[in-house]
Amino acid sequence: MAVFAERPHEHPLLRPPPARRRALTQKTVTMAHGGGGSAMRDLIEDVFLSAFSGAGHAPPEDQARFDLSALMAHGDRLAFTTDGFVVDPLFFPGGDIGTLAVCGTVNDLAVGGARPVALSCAIIIEEGLSVETLRAVVASMAQAARAAGVSIATGDTKVVPRGACDKLFITTTGIGVVRAGLDVGIGRARAGDVVLVNGLLGDHGAAILNARGDLALDTEIKSDCAPLNGLIDTLIAAAPGIRMMRDATRGGIAAVVNELAEASAVGVKLDELSLPMRPEVMGFCEILGLDPLYLANEGKILAVVPADEAPAALAALRAHPLGQDAAIIGEITGERPGRVVMRTRFGGERIVDMLVGDQLPRIC
Amino acid sequence: MAVFAERPHEHPLLRPPPARRRALTQKTVTMAHGGGGSAMRDLIEDVFLSAFSGAGHAPPEDQARFDLSALMAHGDRLAFTTDGFVVDPLFFPGGDIGTLAVCGTVNDLAVGGARPVALSCAIIIEEGLSVETLRAVVASMAQAARAAGVSIATGDTKVVPRGACDKLFITTTGIGVVRAGLDVGIGRARAGDVVLVNGLLGDHGAAILNARGDLALDTEIKSDCAPLNGLIDTLIAAAPGIRMMRDATRGGIAAVVNELAEASAVGVKLDELSLPMRPEVMGFCEILGLDPLYLANEGKILAVVPADEAPAALAALRAHPLGQDAAIIGEITGERPGRVVMRTRFGGERIVDMLVGDQLPRIC
């Protein structure tokens, strides 16, 4: 446990002690850095606190604290969500495990209609990881948190012996506040509603697979990893009757539409020709025999809105830098509840089922 | 992401879909169980939901939700804390990684004066782990959560290939509500205050080391792993002027007193003869050349109270089942701020410094 940033406290005895920040001398993380002693404090102060907080910070407590009345100014319900990140490789075009760990949890909060407030960050490190690698990941976390407007308020580090984990795993947990009166949920879609996405599909999955070096493609495909809370603010303002949103990560768009068809007891009809996708990603999928509907995204949401709000929703998404390629990709129907069908580009129809697993392990 | 239990929702469309819980047929966890598809849903429903929630549960959302006004009935500040658990072995006398993951975070909340409300649970599983092992760990988490009176409200599972992690890691994050008017903190100790612990020291560290089979001791030492929020309620009621509490986990009592000496800019004087400790643990330490002050505990807090409240605090602790061996172990002084000294059993004095690392890796 270690708190990275805390609400300043008025009590004179709680003023920060004189700065004792020490620079790490080691070039790699050792077992002592996870031992709860002075080496761990040095690691936390030099690597984490310097990135996650400003110049001064309060003495470490076992928890971060937030005024409940200040939170209530933003809404009426607290949202709480967690995600573990084990992506391989740690660094890939468009981001790294740190970017992913912040954006993933920010987006989980935002799709539920919550304004993200703060994240916690628990890191498990393999002995021998270079301190430079850790610093780079932490810098990405700090940058993504700034972009999303959240603080990284508390954290924990553990070190395990060489071979007991693969380099670095991060678990982030987020708290946020759900807007009063907003009621979005996976079970709220109704026949006649419209299905939208905010842009090009499959970039994250393709980027990771390419970064693993299994293929030597000419074009570099970048992960779409991004915090979507700003985009979602815009979308909710334009379509206040919005039914549900979900970030299409593991399992891709296909997993989301299947979950929503089942939870809402509706049919979903997708139109393959309207799916926004890079030609490179489509080609990539053809070469590998992958279905792009199942490819992971880290900066894409699927949203369901009432038909009369769809034009405003689409316009709002397209006006946002993270939604320029937004599209209407399908509709909710009363037919075959629980089933997802897709009109193919050849004019036929096929069922889009949920996969048993993912096409790619360690995608996030 | 998967929500394990959620506040029941009034909207008719949000009623749970017909039960589709399916029993897992596999005996070991496969990569597909972490892939975001139907295998993962089956694992979550059969292993996690059945343990963490009652008969019915709402459709899975990306987040758990709590009414802020209901939280405000318990206090004025939200507490938020996280911890990763990598203990080796997974099972040990007195508990397992699941017990530890719940108690650790409950205790982190409680020592800050917060009433624990809910936990999240993110699990990283090595491919090939037996489903029975996972079920046992999850059952321990559910049991510990019931004992502590908290819900496990949301979670995430990831599976990594064989060799990419050692069996199972768990990160829990907790939210709680800090009592209005209560102001405890590591920087609040003052000269003249009294230092207490709630019982026998070092049991967890000794139990883990013994469970690793490095020694073949006749006596089985059990971990003291327990949720301390009930005990802490009692303590705060008896000593409302309490300055600080801290659970003495990694780094043991020694790490806590050193942190408090530095943060409060005070001296701490401990009395070795008053340290409550099992003869077996003392013997264990002598054999191995370990210092019991640095041994990890998972059911022990160190508390600092004003001298006039010390008798009531001690009596309250001793009246609680988890505090029967509570003792006053030292005092806060104005001498040598930042320093911890101990009167030894031979009548001398020695400095108790913070270790660079821990004596034992993967202790929690």
Automatic annotation (TrEMBL), chains A, B:
Residues 190-341 form the PurM-like C-terminal domain. One of its GO terms (biological process) is protein maturation. It comes from the Bacteria. Signal peptide: none annotated. It holds the Pfam family AIRS. Belongs to the HypE family. This is Hydrogenase expression/formation protein HypE.
